[in-house]
Amino acid sequence: MDPGSKSIEVEHVREWKTQIQKDCSESLLWMMGGETCLWSSDRRQSNGRSCEAQSATVAEVWLWQVGSWKAVGRLQSHSLTVTQMEFSHDDKLLLTVSRDRQFSIFAIKGTGTEEISHELIARKEAHKRILWACSWNPHGYEFATGSRDKTVKIWGVENQSSVNLLLMLPPFKTSVTALSWIGLGNNRSNGLLAVGMENGLIELWNLFINRINDRSTKAPPATAALFARLDPLMCHVSAVNRLAWRIPEKSDKECSNLQLASCGADHCVRVFDVKTLPDKMGRGMKQRASVRKRQ
User: Fold this and answer.
1) pTM for the full model?
2) 142-175 pLDDT, tens per residue?
3) Radius of gyration over every alpha carbon of the chain, rounded to an integer in angstroms
4) Residues 196, 175: Cα–Cα separation, whole Å
5) Between residues 90 and 280, the one the model is more confident about
6) Residue 88 class from Cβ within 10 Å (0-12 exposed, 13-18 middle, 19+ buried)?
7) Three-class SS string for 206-238?
8) What gap in Å lies between CA 134 and CA 288, rounded to an integer?
9) What secondary structure does DSSP assign to the chain, as a single string?
10) Bridge partners (DSSP) listed for residue 176
11) How many CA atoms lie within 13 A of 220 on its CB side?
12) Would 94 disulfide with which of 106, 120, 216, 221, CB 3.0-4.6 Å?
């Protein structure tokens, strides 16, 4: 065989592979490397995807337009793998957390012509170790981050420009691997945060956010109290990978009957019924819980 023709054949194969990769990335939501996370906006207008990365170039988040399924943005901020992302309740902000110990917040704007613009508005080194999880307050611009450093921090975004630390929960016994925040009723300031850990256990924390308009006194910007520790026999035997609250029924205005789903590295999915029994004393922070696992 002519060596020249062999080199031409190899070059054709390379060009073919390059074209296949381009077609897949632009038309099939396919990404180079293993996919690590995916999140869709509440209005299902766009979604974000990321993959395993060892450099800033690969650690970008791809933003896709739902319907046309075209890539409309490549968000760059992190230097290592993005481990989780989540849109805010109004889809105006996208929060990402990464193995580089930082979180980033992007402002996402739709032009009304199926085009989406984005801008990095905040980036902060939030923890001492890898960030595994994040979750927005479903009624505000507060969010939680969880890390391998065994801590959970609550942050607040002001004027869509600055981010301040509001509260840090007491240290946990092991790495925090999953978070999910749900609001309680029409109270924008009160919510439950589910915390999943590397040892498979799950805790529920009651959060109260003191809004700026309410800060006439020297009250802390946020407070937290342990709501419930789920029975270890109901939890996972390995790391909790994801947590998700079911959106309450409209008829359940007090959010007294909740459901929490979890999945773990033990290849199990669990669903818990959580009943909240509010204490009439105080500002709703003191509550009792009844938790059972669905069979």
Assistant:
1) 0.79
2) 999 999 999 999 999 988 788 999 999 999 999 9
3) 22
4) 9
5) 90
6) buried
7) EEEECCHHHCCCCCCCEEEEEEEECCHHHCCCC
8) 25
9) --HHHHHHHHHHHHHHHHHHHHHHHHHS---SS-EEEEEE-TTSSEEEEEE--SSTTTTPEEEEETTTTEEEEEE---SS-EEEEEE-TTSSEEEEEETTSEEEEEEEEE-SSS-EEEEEEEEEE--SS-EEEEEE-TTSSEEEEEETTS-EEEEEEETTTEEEEEEEPPPPSS-EEEEEEEEETTEEEEEEEEEEETTS-EEEEEEEE--GGGTTS---SEEEEEEEE--GGGS-SS-EEEEEEPPPPTT-TT--EEEEEEEETTS-EEEEEEEEEE-SSTTS--EEEEEEE--
10) 197
11) 11
12) 106
pLDDT of residue 149: 97
Question: Which residue type does 268 have?
Answer: C
Rounded CA-CA distance 187/161 in Å is 24
pLDDT in tens, 183-207: 987 667 889 999 999 999 999 999 9
Average pLDDT, the chain: 79
Beta bridge partners of 165: 155
What is the chain's length? 295
**Type of residue at 150:** K
